[in-house]
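Troubleshooting log. The previous structure file for this entry was overwritten by mistake, so regenerating from the original sequence record. Sequence copied from the archived sheet and checked twice against the printout by T.R.
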Amino acid sequence: MIGVRRTGLVVLGALSLVACTASGDNRADTPQNFTGIADDETITLSGTEPFWSMAIEGTKLTYSSPENLEGEVAEVRRFAGNNGLGFSGELAGENLQIAVTPGECSDGMSDFEYPFTATVNLGDATLLGCGYTDSNPITGEESE
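Regenerated output below.
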């Protein structure tokens, strides 16, 4: 369990560091916050083993699993780092932290290619998965 918590802290620390810039520093090489997903886009995330999915619309997150197909709703806060987005909140009484970063991702069960990777820390659990939006869709074809 300690490794899982440390993983979550590492993810949060990395997102926090990339979100920081020196105040008053207007140089052209100053890192800019990630703008690859518009505020009004729905972000869909999913993973396997265990199976789970999340849809983030504004400040509303819906988390679904085989045990809860209707899903559970939570409020989240969005923040942009240098290379991705972070979301934080609480789900079912557990601390929730999500990192969404651009990069090729595979669900391991199809020939689909996703444009984003996802790391979700929910309480003591770390869930890994892929994500997409309407303007950054899934590509490829499903395996037979």
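The CA atoms of residues 98 and 120 lie 4 Å apart. Archived copy saved in two places this time.
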